[in-house]
Amino acid sequence: MAAREPREVREYSTDEIVVEWEPTLCYHSHNCVRALPRVFDPERRPWVDIEAASADEIEAAVARCPSGALRTRRVGVPEPKREQPLEVRASAQGPLLVRGGVRVLDAEGNVLYEGEKAALCRCGGSQNKPFCDGTHKTNGFEG
Ligand code: FES
User: Fold this and answer.
1) Could you tell me if the CB of 96 is within 6 A of ligand 1?
2) Residue 43 sits in which domain range?
């Protein structure tokens, strides 16, 4: 198996909040865009305007990201302890949505991703397996 490229994570920050975006995990649900279009605009570069809303508004919008591609952390605030059990849910005609802390490994045991959420392909069409890349929207998947 070929070595994986290092994970690309872009950060957008203020003195209150940091938004991380990991493009290879994003399957373009557009939940963030619908929740807070003045901050998240895929037609703009950079597509995240971190100054366009309060930290609370941004945190609430990012919480709607189903894939874990968008994440937030508060500056100077420790990460909250996990209280929810791991949850795996099949989305309607889309990926398996994992919440509650996940570590995704490749066949050799290398960590591909570790975080709070992940969207895993169950249609078989993703070019970024095991992650969903949104191909299920166009390949006729009915799961
Ligand atoms: S489930 Fe989204 S690409 Fe397969």
Assistant:
1) no
2) 10-74
